[in-house]
Design a protein that fits this description.
Elements (H helix, E strand, L loop, with lengths): L1 H18 L2 E17 L8 E13 L4 E18 L1 H5 L10 E19 L4 E21 L9 E23 L4 E10 L13 E14 L1
Antiparallel strand pairs: 1-2, 1-8, 2-3, 3-4, 4-5, 5-6, 6-7, 7-8
Length: about 220
């Protein structure tokens, strides 16, 4: 399955490459600040993680280029739980007993159109497709305050479940080889599709990448 998607991605590059004037290969990596938005998200907090991958920039003119990327991207969310708040008849807000981090590991394929504002800055936007490799849930006890420590980790296959959405950002060239690109991604696929009537839930992430281009 993974090989089929990678082959399809490479196949799509050929017509873009043939039409472009020049192409450059590069590496990129950075931070994700991700969460989910919509229904059933009360108490949800963002999660800090990262991404790493490769890109090819196809230049069509001095002002316009298209940049497909292939990234391993870790996203998700976290939340804290206070056992006393759940189990007590008259609960009071206490220090949380444990934290749960839900990690979505994706194979992401952004396809960004880049428009040059000047020699150093470009705006970029485009669609992004992602395939869920696995979902990891980590439960960690805070400071061992309870009599029995609770530290668990569970990983389940993502079965290449599709997520898709739109990304927009800015590319800032620091040198001819190095650049930085803050970007915002909003998922457009309802994660709760089929879970209940009118329930909607979407992925979202802020990304900050450092890019290295081979000239």
């Amino acid at each position: 399955m993974k090989g089929a998607f990678l082959s399809a991605f490479l196949f799509l590059l050929f017509p873009i490459s043939a039409a472009s004037q020049e192409s450059r290969f590069g590496l990129k990596g950075g931070l994700n600040y991700s969460t989910i938005a919509g229904d059933l998200t009360e108490g949800i907090n963002p999660r800090l993680s990262g991404h790493i991958g490769v890109f090819v920039n196809f230049e069509f003119s001095n002002q316009f280029s298209i940049q497909p990327e292939l990234l391993y991207s870790s996203e998700g969310f976290r939340f804290n739980t206070d056992l006393a708040f759940i189990t007590t008849a008259n609960p009071q807000v206490n220090e949380p007993d444990f934290t749960t981090a839900v990690q979505f590991n994706y194979l992401s394929i952004p396809v960004m159109a880049q428009f040059e504002l000047n020699d150093r800055i470009a705006v970029e936007f485009g669609p992004q497709f992602a395939f869920l490799l696995n979902q990891v849930t980590k439960i960690k006890n805070f400071d061992g305050r309870d009599a029995q420590s609770l530290n668990e980790r569970e990983s389940i296959s993502g079965n290449f479940q599709l997520d898709y959405g739109a990304a927009i950002g800015v590319l800032v060239r620091i040198t001819d080889r190095f650049s930085a690109s803050p970007r915002f991604y909003l998922g457009l696929r309802n994660r709760l599709n089929g879970a209940g009537a009118n329930l909607q839930n979407y992925n979202g992430a802020l990304q900050l990448s450092v890019n290295y281009t081979f000239l």
